Amino acid sequence: MNQRAYVEQIMGLPISLHVRGEDPDGPEVRLGAEAVFAELRRFDAMFSPYRDDSDLARFERGERPDDPLFAEMLALCDEARARTGGRFDPRGLPDPRTGTPRFDPSGLVKGWAVERSAAHLRKLRRYSWCLNAGGDVLVHAEEDHPAWRVGIEHPDDPARLLQVIERRTGAVATSGTAHRGAHIVDPATGQPATAVQAVTVTGPQLLWADVYATAAAAAGPRSLEWLGTLDDHAALLVSASGLVQCTEAWPAP
After folding, report:
1. Tens place of pLDDT for every residue, the chain, 253 residues?
2. Count helices and strands in the chain by DSSP H and E runs
3. Which end of the chain is least crowded, N or C, by CB within 10 Å?
4. What are phi and psi of 146, to 5 degrees?
């Protein structure tokens, strides 16, 4: 079986696509990869909190973007706030450049963008693929192909792995302080969340796995009990003290 990796820098992070199959360098796969990256660039242009010309920036200035995707994002943010009991809330978050409060849906947009862009890969036949956006991963393995092995970084040392899990389909999302410091805000206090080093959530969709991981990182270690109530999801949580805990559904090492 052959494998090919495609990598581009989008949304300020490396996004990699690994494809397995007979001809992962062929025109069908190349077109699929190009379509994935093009859609991710579109999302970046619309929702980047770092760009003054993004639709998000225009929304913050009081304009109403025409693209129906923007309205869909607003609706998803409301749904995410409801699903998480307010643990995820994009309102009043600090601007990454100035620190002033603003609406920032980044904790939802990346997973949603990757999920949507993967539709181009689902059109491929007889190919397995792994789409990795800065550590948030979406995978598909054909029936006669091996499962993908996804490493869970140790938050104290990214060169080490806490665990390796196997996934044939679905998502693995991680939120925490390892790479960007205390950038997640607890909506209940308005302060940076520091009680959790990392939360990894697995589930069928990257959109919700990412939202749930971000929400749990914001709310702290007690959110593990809430994570355990989510159907079709499993979670691993590392507290600030280094204590590693997981929900009952998390796969044994």
Report:
1. 899 999 999 998 999 999 999 999 999 999 999 999 999 999 999 999 989 999 999 999 999 888 999 999 999 999 999 999 999 999 988 877 787 888 999 999 999 999 999 999 999 999 999 999 988 999 999 999 999 999 999 998 878 999 999 999 999 999 976 666 557 887 878 788 889 999 999 999 999 999 999 999 999 999 999 999 999 999 999 999 999 999 999 998 7
2. 6, 14
3. C
4. -70, 155
> DSSP 3-state assignment of 14?
strand
E-only strand ranges, 90-168: 93-94, 101-102, 128-133, 136-140, 148-154, 157-167
Do residues 29 and 122 touch, judged by C-beta distance below 8 A? Answer: no
What Rg value do the Cα atoms of the chain yield, rounded? Answer: 18
CA nearest to 84, candidates 249, 219, 222, 240: 219
What pTM was computed for the model? 0.94
User: Measured at the alpha carbon of residue 47, what is the angle toward residues 43 and 48, in degrees to the nearest 5?
Assistant: 105
- For 125, what's the count of Cα atoms within 13 Å in the CB-facing half-sphere? 0
Report how far apart, in Å, the C-alpha atoms of 130 and of each of 33, 48, 167, 172 are: 11, 24, 10, 11
Which of 45, 82, 50, 89 has its CA nearest to residue 67?
Answer: 45
Nearest residue to 171 (alpha-carbon basis) of 128, 203, 207, 218? 203
Distance CA 21, CA 1 (A): 6
**Residues 20 and 28 sit within 8 Å (Cβ to Cβ):** no
Q: Which amino acid is at 204?
A: P
Largest Cα separation within the chain, whole Å, is: 52
